[in-house]
Amino acid sequence: MFPKLLRGLVPFLLISATAAPAQSDAPVTGADLRRHIEILASDDFGGRAPGTPGEQRTIDYIAEQFRARGLEPAGENGSWFQPVGLVERTTRRHQVTWIADGRALPFDQANIALQGRDAETRIGGAPVIFAGHGARLPERGIDQLAGANVEGAVVLILFEGPNVPGFPSFTQRVAAVTEAGAAVVIAITSADIQWSFITRNYQRTTTKLASQRVAPVVGAMPFEAAQALVEAAGGDFGRLLNDQPGSSFRAVTLPIRADVDVDTEVRASTTNNVVGRLRGSGSSGESLLYLGHWDHFGTCRPEGEPDRICNGAIDNASGIAVMIEVAGRLSAQPRPARDILFLATTAEELGLLGAEYFATHPVVPLPSIVAAINLDSVAIHPAGLPVAVIGRGNAPLDAAIEATVAAVGRRLDTDNEADAMATRQDGWALARLGVPAILLGGSISDMDRLNQFLAGPYHGPEDEVGPDLILDGAAEDATLLVALGRRLADPALYSPAAEGQR
Predict the structure, then answer these.
(1) What is the mean pLDDT of each run of 10 residues along the chain (502 residues)?
(2) What does the pLDDT read at residue 16?
(3) CATH number for 32
(4) Of 77, 113, 193, 314, which has the fewest CB atoms closer than 10 Å, so is most exposed?
(5) What is the pLDDT of residue 502?
(6) Burial (Cβ within 10 Å: 0-12, 13-18, ≥19) of residue 493
(7) Domain for residue 493, yes or no?
(8) Are residues 251 and 295 in the same domain?
(9) How far is CA 291 from the centre of its chain?
(10) What is the CATH number for 155?
(11) Chain-centroid distance, C-alpha 487
(12) What are phi and psi of 272, to 5 degrees?
């Protein structure tokens, strides 16, 4: 984290290059957006990677633009910033020895990938437990961890879950096993996932929130290796999988003990969300939230490449540009009753980490957020496209969107194709905790165009400002988002569904 003394030292030319905030309800224009994108996606900002000088310039620029548009700081201790602690981990060495009846079982170390939470992890003689999928759904009477004491154990769980609505994700199942006290959580991967793909991922550096509870060791092994291990100890893996019906499965302690030895390089750092507030005229304590990620990949190509910086013009300088202009338009109009929060998140590219931190450490009570609107990669489409929505299904919010789209003379795209991207954007971190969260606009209406971007300049140096950058569609969407914000911030026009109806 850069010293606080450096904050506010954004070069004067970068701030003055931005036009004065809008003082009317004039539509947002492509020129309005381009001014911000040219700055945020310039080489001077170095690709906006968290923890770099590019972060400092980026968050200071956003804070200054928020201030200039009449927002007040809503971060930590009266500042614009919400610090987010991160931990990077890279496995340096690992080994596991499986023991049954006092003898070491034959095992190829190439068939396991492990990563430790701490720099050195030594676990000796731990019990080994097979816990099915590691699922806990008390509302359905399912607890696959019951039947064995997993405290301090090596717990094996199946990576792929059944295709059942509401079944917890792998991440959620690992969290449940960790919460139960497991020392090691190992995923058993199926044959249709290439083991080389798994090992490459474990060899890469991983980044997680410092606030996130993680197991002392996490890892993976292929199905065939798990089967051979159980059979080498005299067991029958097929019976483990099939003897108990899924809903009544209970964890099984295997006749195996394990010694686990992992060395991991651990690096802690701090990055920042930027949070501003437009104070409402009412006293309901409710807020509407706009969010979009400011981060990108920084210097992303090796020495000697002609262009080494991933500037992230579309992804997501364009979303931040829309957020700034929406804030300016809403601030220039009569104040709505509800507060409006504007959140520029960090570390989205590392796994929605800034949004996840805000969702678990909100600056206002999470239930008081009546809706969240995410802005991501908006500058890829021309004006005139229908408005698609990720996150439909909340009846009052759907009605508010439909009314606003009709009021501005546009039409709604209701094929829900864009929902395939739901878990890949910051709104997901809020939606899964019950906040009505959406991402909408023309950019997700034309999926062929979106997929062309994803297969082309996305996450590469080619995503930079050029004369062919398409901004008229983003400007049209920004004007829609101003109108939608006015509606959602007015309790007389929009009241969110109760928690049980979401």
Answers:
(1) 32 42 75 98 97 97 98 97 98 97 96 97 97 93 93 97 86 94 97 92 93 95 97 94 85 97 97 98 96 96 91 97 98 96 97 97 98 96 96 96 98 93 95 96 94 93 93 98 98 77 40
(2) 41
(3) 3.40.630.10
(4) 77
(5) 39
(6) middle
(7) yes
(8) no
(9) 12
(10) 3.50.30
(11) 27
(12) -145, 135
Domain count, the chain: 2
Residue 476: closest CA among 289, 322, 293: 322
- 169 and 288 inside one domain: no
pTM of this structure: 0.89
| Spatial separation of the C-alpha atoms in residues 459 and 466, rounded to whole Å | 16
Q: Are residues 403 and 355 in the same domain?
A: yes
Q: What is the dihedral of CA 165, 167, 169, 172, to 10 degrees?
A: 140
The residue among 59, 67, 69, 63 whose CA lies nearest residue 21 is: 69
Residues with Cβ within 8 Å of residue 96, at least 6 apart in sequence: 107, 109, 112, 114, 258, 259, 260, 261
Closest C-alpha to 278, from 360, 238, 333: 333
Rounded CA-CA distance 227/201 in Å is: 23
User: Which tokens hold the place of 473?
Assistant: 């569609």
Q: Encoding tokens for residue 308? A: 């080494």
Q: How many residues are listed for the chain in this entry?
A: 502
Q: Which two tokens stand for residue 279?
A: 């104070």
| CA atoms within 13 A of residue 221's CA, in its CB half-sphere | 23
For 163, other C-beta atoms within 10 Å of its C-beta total 6
From CA 159, how far away is CA 138, in angstroms rounded?
20
Return the pLDDT at 21: 54
Helix, strand, coil % in the chain, rounded to nearest 5 = 35, 25, 40
